[in-house]
Design a protein that fits this description.
The protein has 79 residues and is mainly alpha-helical. Helices cover 51% and strands 0% of the residues. It binds zinc ion. Zinc ion (ZN) binds next to helix 3.
């Protein structure tokens, strides 16, 4: 991965353990070095924790095959 910032969707996948360990490791290192992405990562982690607190079946994601529909993807819901 180049020295780019980590996009939100990749951060989400990182927290969902949906990435290869090597890829996740690159993100982890970037977060330790980059305050900007680290603060976004905190917000994403908070959001995911809040969603998890609503119950596993509130959002039917991640789906077993990894596919997401716009209807059940919280990242695309209006704030
Ligand atoms: Zn960054």
């Amino acid at each position: 991965m180049p020295e780019d910032h980590v996009p939100d969707d990749l951060l989400t996948q990182h927290f969902m353990d949906d990435l290869d360990p090597a890829e996740s490791d690159v993100i982890h290192r970037h977060l330790e070095a980059c305050a900007s992405c680290d603060s976004r990562a905190d917000k994403i982690a908070e959001t995911m924790a809040a969603l998890a607190a609503l119950g596993d079946d509130f959002w039917s994601w991640p789906s077993p095959d990894g596919s997401l529909t716009s209807a059940d993807r919280p990242a695309e819901r209006p704030r």
